[in-house]
Design goal:
It is a single chain. With about 250 residues, the chain is mainly alpha-helical. It folds into two domains: about 110 residues, no CATH class; about 130 residues, Outer Surface Protein A, domain 3. It is built from eleven helices and five strands; from the N terminus they run αααααααββαββαααβ. The strands form two sheets. The protein has a three-stranded antiparallel beta sheet with strand order 2-3-4, with helices on both faces. A hairpin with a 6-residue loop joins strand 3 and strand 4.
Length: about 250
C-alpha cells in the first residue's frame, strides 16, 4: 500500500472508535491487536480533548467537566485536526456547538465558546502597533469624512443573541459567577494592542459602525449605520482607544 494511503487509513481508524485497526498496524505476534490500537486511539482523543479544555475554560466551567468532555469527544471524532499546530485545533468548536441548535444546553454555550475562540485568536495574532488618539487628532477636519481605518490584526468583532460577553466576564476568577443584569444580545470587541487581550462590550450601534469600517467604508459611510450619525466621533474614538485600529488613512481633503 502506498505511504499516503497507509497514513490516510491510519488516520481514519484513529477517528472512528468503531473501526478495526488499519492494515499494517500489527502487534508482536504479527496480527492486528485491537486492544493496543484502542489505547493509542484513546490517547489521541484525550490529547485533543485536553486542547479543547484549555481553549474553552469558561464553556467547560458552565456545563461542568463531564458534559464538556462528552461534547469534546463528539467533536474530536467528527472533526480531525487540520494542522499539526495544536493551538490551531478547535477553532470550529463554536460552529459545532451551534449546529446542535435547540439540543444545546444551555443554548448560549456556542456564543460563549465563540468569544473564547476570538480571545485565543487575538492572543496569537500578529504583533502590530496600534494607532492612538494622537494619529486621529492629526487629521484635518476636511480629511475626516473620506478617512478609512485599518484594523489591528488582533481585533475581532462579534455579535451574540445572548449576553455572552457578560457571562464570560462573570466567569473570570474563582468567585461564583453572577447572572447578567439584563438578558439581551450583546456585541463585543476583542483586542490585544499590547500583550494583554481585552474584551469590550460595544455600545448600541458600535458593531454596525465598526463592521462597516472593517469592510473598507469611509467614516462618512460608516456613520450612516448609526441611528444618530453625529455620534460617529464617539464610536471612532472608542475603537482607537481600545487598540482596535492599526492605522488611520486620511481622506481626500480637496
Amino acid at each position: 500500500m502506498p505511504f499516503e494511503a497507509t497514513i490516510a487509513a491510519f488516520a481514519a481508524a484513529l477517528g472512528d472508535p468503531a473501526a478495526p485497526p488499519p492494515a499494517g498496524a500489527l502487534g508482536r505476534l504479527g496480527v492486528a491487536d485491537s486492544r493496543r490500537f484502542s489505547v493509542y486511539r484513546n490517547n489521541v482523543a484525550v490529547g485533543l480533548i485536553g486542547a479543547l479544555e484549555a481553549r474553552y475554560p469558561v464553556a467547560r466551567r458552565i456545563v461542568g467537566p463531564d458534559v464538556f468532555r462528552a461534547l469534546a469527544r463528539r467533536f474530536v471524532y467528527a472533526r480531525r485536526p487540520r494542522s499539526p499546530v495544536m493551538i490551531a485545533y478547535g477553532d470550529d468548536f463554536p460552529e459545532f456547538l451551534e449546529e446542535a441548535g435547540a439540543a444545546l444546553d444551555p443554548p448560549y454555550l456556542a456564543d460563549v465558546a465563540a468569544l473564547e475562540n476570538a480571545w485565543v485568536e487575538a492572543y496569537h495574532a500578529e504583533d502590530a502597533k496600534a494607532a492612538g488618539v494622537v494619529e486621529l487628532a492629526a487629521l484635518a477636519p476636511a480629511e475626516l469624512p473620506g478617512a478609512r481605518v485599518e484594523f489591528h490584526p488582533a481585533a475581532r468583532l462579534l455579535r451574540f443573541a445572548a449576553p455572552a460577553a457578560s457571562i464570560w466576564a462573570a466567569h473570570q476568577g474563582d468567585a461564583k459567577p453572577a447572572p447578567p443584569e439584563r438578558w439581551q444580545g450583546e456585541e463585543a470587541l476583542v483586542v490585544r494592542p499590547d500583550a494583554a487581550v481585552a474584551v469590550h462590550i460595544l455600545p448600541p450601534g458600535g458593531y454596525a459602525f465598526a463592521a462597516r469600517l472593517r469592510e473598507g467604508a469611509t467614516l462618512a459611510d460608516a456613520a450612516e449605520a448609526l441611528s444618530n450619525p453625529d455620534e460617529f466621533g464617539t464610536h471612532l474614538v472608542g475603537l482607537v482607544e481600545a487598540g482596535a485600529v492599526r492605522s488611520i488613512i486620511p481622506g481626500d481633503a480637496s
